[in-house]
Amino acid sequence: MYRSARRPTMYFIGVTTRQSSIMRVFPEWARRLGLGDCAIVGMDFVPHDKPEAYREAVRFIKEDENSLGALVTTHKVDLLGACRDLFDELDPYATLLGEVSSISKRDGALVGHAKDPITSGLALAAFLPPDHWASTGAEAFIIGAGGSSMALTWHLMNAEDCPSRIVVSNRSTPRLDEMRRLHKQLATGVPVEHRHAPRPEQNDGILSGLKAHSLVVNATGLGKDAPGSPLTRNADFPDHGLVWDFNYRGELRFLEQAKAQSAARHLHIEDGWVYFIHGWTQVIAEVFDIDIPSTGPGFDELSRIAAATRASQQSSQHA
Length: 319
Description:
Blueprint: E1 9-14, H1 22-33, E2 39-44, H2 51-63, E3 67-72, H3 76-83, E4 89-90, H4 92-97, E5 102-106, E6 109-113, H5 116-125, H6 132-136, E7 140-143, H7 147-158, E8 166-170, H8 173-186, E9 192-196, H9 200-208, E10 215-218, E11 242-245, H10 253-265, E12 268-270, H11 273-288, H12 296-317
Parallel strand pairs: 1-2, 1-3, 4-6, 7-8, 7-10, 8-9, 10-11, 11-12
Antiparallel strand pairs: 3-5, 5-6
Helix pairs in contact: 1-12, 2-3, 5-7, 5-11, 7-8
């Protein structure tokens, strides 16, 4: 049972929301953006929670006057599957991908957006060299078949410069089947392989077959929502590879594995921090119905505020 919000409130639907930097960053951003007296509140669910749990939360947001909307992580596909009838509008990405990462209200209507095709593209563009795929013939290996993975594959398949091959692996088959149907529908001509990999050793095998300069993405919750890595300690990253972990907090074992090989294999390593900033600013703009730039001085200032708040949090944790 949820309590009515006393002031304009945005929710964070996740797994371990209290540990997220957004709980400290949001108040600073709210002041910078002139949002007034508002709040952010976490709603924690276990991965693949019961449909009725998602329905209770979404119905509450829909009916509570001061509840303006939410950002959704981890549960994007499951939440929409359980609550599709509660939404009055879905954007084209949400309909295509079968996920919702942003919940907002417009003129009494509950609106769902899938922002990941936009935010993953913005985050990738921040470190991907120009004409990377065409100049190297490199491939992309995405571990995990959740909503963020689906969105990233959509972006990669529809970009002007595309990987020579995309491989997606997952521990279970239902999400792979969903992704296979999406990719068949897109039919962009980019070869895509869907691998069932219930054991980390199987991901190691896929990794070993990648070309140099390939992109390797940890799109699982391992290292943040759950301990571990989708790879074993024997995994070898591709020479001159780009290694991207969607996580930016937690034990981050996948990133530690990459860092151990960074010098020998000339790796470029990215965590999920820039993705975090783009993801939140895009959804805050929807929830509060304001414009937030994705580049330029305004975005740079929000990035600076977030980085300073993150550094302060890390300092206090190690004090």
